[in-house]
Structures are given as C-alpha cells and as structure tokens.
Design a protein that fits this description.
Elements lengths: L20 E4 L2 E4 L10 H5 L2 E9 L2 E2 L2 H14 L8 H14 L6 E8 L18 E8 L4 H6 L1 E5 L7 H4 L9 H12 L4 E5 L5 E4 L3 E6 L2 E4 L9 H12 L4 E3 L4 H5 L3 E6 L3 E8 L2 E2 L8 H24 L1
Parallel strand pairs: 7-8, 7-14, 11-12
Antiparallel strand pairs: 1-2, 1-6, 3-4, 3-5, 5-6, 8-9, 10-11, 10-13, 13-14, 14-15
The chain binds pyridoxal-5'-phosphate.
The site of pyridoxal-5'-phosphate (PLP) has 15 residues, from helix 7 and strand 13.
Catalytic activity: L-leucine + 2-oxoglutarate = 4-methyl-2-oxopentanoate + L-glutamate; L-valine + 2-oxoglutarate = 3-methyl-2-oxobutanoate + L-glutamate; L-isoleucine + 2-oxoglutarate = (S)-3-methyl-2-oxopentanoate + L-glutamate
InterPro entries: Aminotrans_IV (IPR001544), Aminotransferase-like (IPR036038), BCAT-like_C (IPR043132), BCAT-like_N (IPR043131), Class-IV_PLP-Dep_Aminotrnsfr (IPR050571)
Function: Acts on leucine, isoleucine and valine.
Length: 313
C-alpha cells in the first residue's frame, strides 16, 4: 500500500483556532486584529528569530533550553529586546490564559528587529524597538502521522557552512529550508532530507533526523543543523538508558538500509519515517521498537520536567 501524504506539522483540525487571541507588542488581540507593519524587519528581510514551544499542564516544556537558544541567537545578531526569559514566560502565560489553554497548546514566539523607518536593509533603519508576537494555537499532532510515518526525499538544496548562515539561527528567514521542502514535494515526498556540504546526511527541512541501525541510534554530528531541543533530549535519554547513540557522519547508503528512522521536533516529538527516496524503512508501518521506546522515555521526561517546573514556580 502507498504511504499517505503528510507534513510533520499535521495537527488535528480545531475550529477554536479561528478565534484565538494573539499577543502583539504588549497587547492581546483577536486573531483578525493581530497585524504588524509592512515595514517590519521580519516581513521585509526575515530579520528576526522564533521559537516553537509546547504547553503541557500549564507549563512550557523545556522553557530554559528554548530561552537559551533564543537569547543566544538574539545576542549573535545584536538584537537587544530589553526583556529577559521571565518576561517572555509572562507573555506566553498571559497569551495561553487569554485563550483558556493549559494543554496541547503550541506557541510560535516571533521576535524581529521591528518596524523600519525606510524600506531598506540596514539594521539601523529599525528604530522603533522590536516586534514581539506570540501565537498559541490549540494543537494536537494528527494520529495518522504516527501510524503511517513520513516520506522523505533527499534534495539538491544543502545545509550551508556556519559562516554563510549558521543553521543554528532559528531565523525568520527559512528560505533554505523552504526551497528544500519544495524540492521534496516536487519529488513526490512530504519533507526534504538535506545533506551537508560534504554529502553526509544532515537534517530535514523542519526537524532533526535520526536512524537506527543494528541496535544503535545515529544522528548527524550536529555541525550543520538546528541545535534542536528535542534532538538533544533524545541523545541524553539514550545515554541515560544505556541505548548506544552516536553523533556521526553517515551517508544515504546507510540511511536507506536503516532498521528505523525518525524525526525530532517540539511539535511531533518523534515522528517515524516510512520512506526515503522511495525505499521503505522498517518492516511495518509506523514507529519501530527503538523509536517507540524513545517516544515513551520522552513522554515520561516531559511529565517529569513539567512537574519540576511547576514546583519551582
Ligand atoms: C530546521 C529545524 N530543525 C529542527 C527543528 C527542531 O527543533 P526543536 O526540537 O527545538 O523543536 C526546528 C524547529 O525549530 C527547525 O526549524
């Protein structure tokens, strides 16, 4: 049977998302009123950073790790927003509360260099302070995704070297990834499997990538991909649970003959891969045994982390 098409961010339909309230620069407004200027640095240039976070039992899972990545990125592009992680937590909490959400909420926090005085590139033209937006949607990953898995196609678009645009920037400009995704779709797949400049398998356009071979869990060295929070949690969980895990170079040759493959990201946690370039991965549809075990460990880690975060408030 053919694997049905999906995207890694497929969520169950939820009409409530048409009526959510969105945080825009200090105000929480109905979705249809949530707008930013056409002069905004994010809109004009992709000059901004974002984070995706999930709400479990009223807590933003792995909040510190997300803030660490966000504030490192902001510092690297000299974007001083005059706020700290606790101010961001307050923004997210208020937005979730305005929407009556405590669980299954997915946030896209976006911070740009703000409105520009003129429609040109120079960062100095962004004179009015940052633009901060938090969209929190009701969001449950579609169950069909776990059952069927995702189809990947390797694409010509590569992950670049860190001195062009470091893949560790979760920047508004995702054109590199969008081009890769288009190439994958044009090849009849759901998502792109991107290689590094040396031809080793690196990442997908929106998630980190793992394979399981002969009982070992492999992922790329991490040199050319997003420093995914979920990626690191999976590596740590493997170490803590005596599951052999390696961050190493490997090629499509090894990916095609993997026993299992899965993607990691905040939204979908671990999403099984069904096919790579038309080659079936694994013996049955959905997650294999190692992926299932990692999923269970990750679920327990979230529960533990959320309880700890709650107790620390
Ligand atoms: C290109 C890319 N890779 C991987 C990830 C997954 O990162 P995380 O696990 O922190 O959600 C993201 C999400 O922001 C991403 O944009």
């Amino acid at each position: 049977m053919n694997t049905p098409s999906h995207s890694t961010h497929d969520a169950q339909a939820d009409d409530r998302n048409e009526h959510i309230k969105i945080y825009v620069n200090g105000e929480i407004v109905p979705k249809h009123e949530a707008v930013v200027s056409v002069y905004d640095s994010g809109f004009m240039l992709g000059d901004g950073m974002w984070e995706g976070m999930r709400l479990y039992d009223g807590e933003w899972a792995f909040f510190e790790e997300h803030m660490d990545r966000l504030f490192s990125s902001l510092k690297a592009v000299s974007l001083d927003i005059g706020l700290g992680p606790e101010d961001i937590r307050d923004i997210l909490d208020r937005t979730a509360a305005a929407n009556g959400m405590t669980d299954d909420g997915h946030c896209r926090l976006m911070i740009t260099r703000g409105r520009k005085a003129k429609p040109f590139q120079h960062p100095g033209l962004s004179r009015f302070g940052p633009t901060i937006v938090a969209i929190v949607e009701h969001s449950k990953p579609a169950e069909s995704l776990q059952k069927a898995g995702i189809r990947l196609a390797s694409v010509p678009q590569v992950r670049g070297l860190p001195h062009s645009q470091d893949a560790k920037f979760n920047s508004h400009s995702k054109l590199n990834c969008v081009i890769a995704c288009l190439q994958a779709e044009q090849a009849g797949a759901d998502e792109a499997l991107m290689l590094d400049p040396h031809g080793f398998v690196n990442t997908t356009n929106a998630c980190n990538f793992f394979i399981v071979r002969r009982g070992e869990v492999w992922t790329s060295t991490g040199d050319y991909c997003m420093n995914g929070v979920t990626r690191q949690k999976v590596i740590d969980l493997c170490h803590e649970n005596a599951m052999p895990v390696r961050e190493k170079n490997f090629s499509l040759y090894e990916a095609y003959s993997a026993d299992e493959a899965f993607l990691t990201g905040t939204f979908g946690a671990q999403t099984p891969v069904a096919e790579i370039d038309g080659r079936k991965i694994g013996t049955e549809a959905g997650a294999g045994p190692v992926t299932k075990r990692i999923r269970a460990l990750y679920k327990a880690l979230i529960a533990e982390t959320v309880a700890r975060q709650k107790a620390a408030r």
